[in-house]
Amino acid sequence: LVTIGTALVVQARVDGDFVGILFAIGVMLAEVGFSLFAVPVLSRVGPIGVAAHGTWLAAVMLVLGAVFLEGVDAFRMPTAVEAAALAHLTVLVTAVAFVAWYTAVDRLGADTAGLFAGLIPVSALMVSALIGTDTITTAKLIGVFVVGAGVAYGIRRTGRVRT
What single string gives the DSSP state of each residue in 33-44? Predict the structure, then answer.
């Protein structure tokens, strides 16, 4: 249900663009791998350790990619606005979000925590509508409700999240 709802929200957001749908599928598969590859090591290094190792590995890959694509031009001092954006991405979007996600995977299991990944396109739609860069259509709204139903059913079925 969550996957179907997410597909409705994403498909309606990209207006049926085939390439956009392929990218959305790729992101979903990456999200699944992101969680499943962490499960075996969570018990040994914990959520902070998994987040730290994932972050330094990603940083190495990004530096190598930047050097390969841009050479020495990849390294320059950021402007003040760029530095603020980088700090936000580093602290909140990466460190805090990774630790929160891996804590959820550790406590709830990848199957239950994975249900909540369906809320990512829902929240993106809501924020986009709030700032005026997207509109909420009937198809998108149906997708939102299907995601919500899928998350509620999945939580009820696993019994791992209690109010």
Answer: HHHHTTHHHHHH
